[in-house]
Amino acid sequence: MDFKESCNLINSCNLIFEELEKLEIKDDNVDYELVKILEDLSNRCQKMEQINYTLQMELEEKEKNMLTIEKKLLIKDKELSDSQKEVQFLQTQQIKLERKSKELSEIVNTMKNIERRSPKILLPSLGHKPKLSPYKCKYRKKMSLSDVCPKYFPMIPGIVIHCVEGIEEFHLTTEELYHLPISYKEVSKLYNDFLNSNSIPILQFASPSTIVGCLQKFLRAICDPIIPQNLWIKFESAIQKVNKDDLISSIHHLPKPNLQTLAYLCLHWIKISEECYSNKKLAICDLSDILGSTVVGFKTPPGIISAEEMEKEIETQKLIMLALLQLPKTFWETFLSIENRDAVY
Question: Which InterPro entries does UniProt cross-reference here (predicted)?
Fold first, then answer.
């Protein structure tokens, strides 16, 4: 019997007792047993009513407990949800940190590679862009190397530094790098980008021959080669005497922009001979043939030089260039070391 049925039974018994009280008992033959049964039933109903009340109170208490438990569960669910969100946030942060760590590692490796290429060289001129084109200045004459170099150490044109670094970073393993066929259209475009653009051209996707051609085009565009005409005889004499001390003395007579640019390029060409050619000695000879006229130039002006004189001077150019590339790397590094930045030669 459930709670509702018990209540109905109690109510029915109460109605019976009320009706019995209203009766006027005049008949002595009223069944005594019936009255006794009803009284007993009444007692039981009262007990049942008390039991039901107790059960009702316990049920209400349990419902309150259930509500409390549900609230606690909701709080726990919210805390769990917040914890999951926090875990997801931490995981996202960890991924970001790992990505940043990888980027920093790549930057460190890049810096190490740059340091490996030029371990003692301070390069504040990386962002240097010549204010005037090396083709012509306002007087309709070509500019000198000093006109396109920064006025501080190292005095190396920005275009030279960028071309060398582009070659060494992206194409150092290219075989016979300075023998590749050149697209003059691509070379001119890259060269003009360096001179006229407000930003530094991206060399990652440029072909090795285009970067090499751009570097050579710049060296030919200045009015006097790196070995200037007024020192040509001094270098020629050192080569004819096969005297290393005279050659070193001639190098020390170069203007600072010429000397530091020459040192930087010789280190680059020596590295090319080691990395891009199977035979270093043959490589240096080949590079001397290619670079001699660009770096050394001619003693006699183009308008008055004869074919015979030109042939002799070309041979001298190659010998001077060969002698320069045969000097040890440590010799050239001294001109680019921070310790010697203020040295007077």
Answer: Rho_GTPase_activation_prot (IPR008936), RhoGAP_dom (IPR000198)
As a residue count, the chain comes to 345
Please return the burial class of 210, using the count of CB atoms within 10 Å of its CB with bins 0-12, 13-18 and 19+: buried
Tokens coding 222: 């200045």
Tokens of 6: 């018990």
The dihedrals phi and psi of 123, each to the nearest 5 degrees, come to: -120, 70
Residue 196: partners with Cβ closer than 8 Å, 6 or more residues away = 133
Amino acid at site 47: K
Amino acid at 312: K
Neighbours of 89 (CB within 10 A): 10
Tokens linked to 209: 């021959």
How far are the Cα atoms of 92, 99, 102, 103 from residue 106, in angstroms, in the given order? 21, 11, 6, 5
Gyration radius from the chain CA atoms = 50
Residue 185 tokens, joined: 């259209």
Token pair of 280, please?
């270093």
Alpha-carbon distance of 86 to 102, in angstroms, equals: 24
Long-range contacts, 68-71 (Cβ 8 Å, 24+): none
Q: What is the pLDDT of residue 247?
A: 94
Q: For residue 199, how many other CB atoms are within 10 A of its CB?
A: 8
Smallest CA-to-CA distance from 142 within 150, 159, 152, 130 is with 130
- pLDDT above 80 (res 135): no
* pLDDT tens for each residue of 157-185: 999 999 999 999 999 888 888 888 889 99
Taking CA atoms, 208 is separated from 155, 203, 276, 294, 317, in Å, by 25, 9, 12, 19, 25
From the CB of residue 73, how many other CB atoms can be counted at a distance below 10 Å? 10
pTM above 0.70, yes or no: no
Q: What is the Cα–Cα distance from 153 to 202, expressed in whole angstroms? A: 25
Residue type, 284: I
In degrees and rounded to multiples of 5, residue 132 shows phi and psi of -120, 150
Q: H-helix or E-strand containing 22?
A: helix 3-22
Q: What is the DSSP letter of 171?
A: S
Rounded to whole angstroms, how far apart are CA atoms 207 and 221?
21
